Amino acid sequence: MNTLQGHLEERLEALFTIGAEISSTLQLEEVLQRIVAHVRRLMAARVSSILLLDPEEGTLRPAATEGASQAYLAQPAREVATSLTGEVIKTGRPLYTPDVRTETRYRVADLARREGLCSLLSVPLRARTAIIGVLNVYTTEPRCFEDSDVRLLTLLASQSAIAIENATLYREEMQAREQLRQSEKLAALGQLSAGLAHELRNPLNTVLMLIYAMAQDQGYPRQRTTTNGFSDDLRIVQGELQRIKLLLDQFLEFARPRPPHFQRERLQEIMEETLLLIGPEARGREIVIRRDWANTLPLAWVDGVQIKQVFLNLLLNAIQAMPHGGTLTVHISVGGGSLRVTIADQGDGVSPEVRAQLFDPFFTTKEEGTGLGLSISQRIIEGHNGRLRLFSQPGVGTTVCIRLPL
Ligand SMILES: Nc1ncnc2c1ncn2[C@@H]1O[C@H](COP(=O)(O)OP(=O)(O)OP(=O)(O)O)[C@@H](O)[C@H]1O
Ligand SMILES: [Mg+2]
């Protein structure tokens, strides 16, 4: 058997086994990782990578790579409209770039130089109904890919796209089930505890009133510094009871939410009012707030009080994530028929374990937290037919993105 034929047979055999292997799991990360590993080996490339399309944002996000460094992995998502790989999405055809280091449309030429990358072959990941991303292979030497290379990569891409789509559908199905389970659990828990909270509020109010009367009898607050300490104790008891009352009120607000009262509002004004509230706390932590929005945004159809509560929760989370300062960027823009608000911090980010539980009611990693901030916010945004998503990179920061329909 000559080497060429041997090579061909090896490729054919690999194609069969790879197809079977990548489809043998439904874990998306695993599927992606297997694809890039096989593609890199089979194409004898330096790096292979997968970028997945976010059709709403119009961006391509690096989802998996093999053979590249951390710096390469940490690249931000790129715009389909302006990037080189975006061309593959737009045309639906393979794209060959002889040398990325001298290609002006290639944004990270410096990085490519440092990684020792030269030729690039990109093919679309075409699933059943749409193109879902791009599969790339890079070589270190200038390589003129042959037709058979392009065909092989295209075949790999079509097998891969179906495996990715299946894993994505599976993940969505699991998430939907989990959400249903959560909301059922929440409904039962909510009913039970709302009843309990309500019952607790009445005796608490009586005790608060009596304590208030006792404090008055003691001459509080005039003699706050009496030496017997009785008034001081009363003050502490009063303060603690107020805290319990606040907790119960917050909880009842959560367990028995009122329906939104929609009005035309300026989101940027609601945001300014909320930023005013957190200003002192942010300054205390040496956090710089960057406002990034145009003056002429369309009015939003929202419940202003509820949206303010959402902004407050998210801004508080952001500043609480930056105990040593940093920049907090608030961005408001319009696009794709909706208003988009993003709140980005430079905090510690969220680890994968925390990530899975973020939106669970009462899940908190903070000593003083109730763990209701994100779940209340998400429910309010859903009540507005909008969407709230959280993106986080441990050690880099967290961005929360809200979309509200216009
Ligand atoms: N911007 C962020 N950066 C890092 N971690 C975050 C961020 N936002 C939320 N988290 C994590 O998610 C958890 C849940 O957040 P959530 O706002 O629901 O509750 P909380 O902030 O702990 O308490 P509460 O908001 O009720 O005072 C937090 O405890 C924190 O671990
Ligand atoms: Mg919070």
Would you kindly provide a written description of the structure presented here, covering whatever features stand out?
With about 400 residues, this protein is of the alpha+beta class. The chain folds into three domains: about 5-175, GAF domain (Beta-Lactamase); about 180-255; about 265-405, Histidine kinase-like ATPase, C-terminal domain (Heat Shock Protein 90), CATH 3.30.565.10. The chain has helices at about 5-20, 30-40, 70-75, 85-90, 110-115, 145-215, 230-255, 265-285, 305-320, 350-355, 375-385, and strands at about 45-55, 60-65, 80, 95, 120-125, 130-140, 265, 285-295, 300, 325-335, 340-345, 385-395, 395-405. A six-stranded antiparallel β-sheet has the order 3-2-1-6-5-4. The protein has a five-stranded mixed β-sheet with strand order 8-10-11-13-12. Strands 7-9 form a two-stranded antiparallel ribbon. A hairpin with a 3-residue loop joins strand 12 (about 385-395) and strand 13. The longest helix is centred in the middle third of the chain and has 71 residues, at about 145-215. The structure holds adenosine-5'-triphosphate and magnesium ion. Magnesium ion binds near residues 313, 316, 317, 369 and 373.
SSE layout:
Elements: H1 3-22, H2 28-42, E1 47-54, E2 59-66, H3 70-73, E3 78-79, H4 84-91, E4 95-97, H5 109-115, E5 120-126, E6 131-138, H6 147-217, H7 230-255, E7 263-265, H8 267-284, E8 287-293, E9 300-302, H9 304-320, E10 326-335, E11 338-345, H10 352-355, H11 373-383, E12 387-393, E13 397-405
Parallel strand pairs: 8-10
Antiparallel strand pairs: 1-2, 1-6, 2-3, 4-5, 5-6, 7-9, 10-11, 11-13, 12-13
Helix pairs in contact: 1-2, 1-6, 2-6, 6-7, 8-9, 9-11
This protein binds adenosine-5'-triphosphate and magnesium ion (MG).
